[in-house]
Amino acid sequence: MAKILLVEDDPVLCGMTEDWLKHEHYSIEVATNGRDAREKIQFFEYDLFILDWELPEVTGIELCKEFRNSGGTTPILMLTGKKAVGEKEAGLDAGADDYLTKPFHMRELSARVRALLRRAAATTSNVLKAGNLEVDPTSFNVTRNGEQIHLQRKEFALLEFLMRNPNRVFSPESLLERVWASESDATVEAIRSCMKRLRQKIDVEGTASLIRTVHGVGYKLEL
User: Which of 90, 130, 182, 216 is spaced 20 to 30 Å from 205 by Cα?
Assistant: First the structure.
């Protein structure tokens, strides 16, 4: 599942949005002011940022500009109550990839999140495919040749991440950072255990594993 940083200072909206996105099977981390968000952005990896425009201490626009100026490429969805075209233009010029005006329907938020994640992964469908294996992040469904495979939450998150980033090698440490919560006390051994369980479920006996171990480096999903 995609790892998203939600930055919103309105506690009610923040709580509703966090609950909704968790229900949609995303891994959500929250910051309620610009300073905390800046620290998380600097030290942790995410698949998507959802930034409120007007934040205490450091605004969403400032965070967006700083991130893009530093070479950051993670998709950014800006949330704001500002409706004027010029203000929307300012947000997009600052580096935001999309813009959602408050109040908004949670289903529209979900659709925009899916679109940004598809764009980042260079796919045109919500369903991720690797050979005869299909992963649908929207329905939390995994099938091989049409037959359902039941995965635990972290197994699903690990598989989805690798399928969104095929043919790239990730060290156990980087997978821990991208798939587990940033403040998690999980160790690299948790990655190895999860990987072993995942392979047992998705691999076909007598054929090479879909997820290759690059000895001394890490893992990659080969297409």
Answer: 216
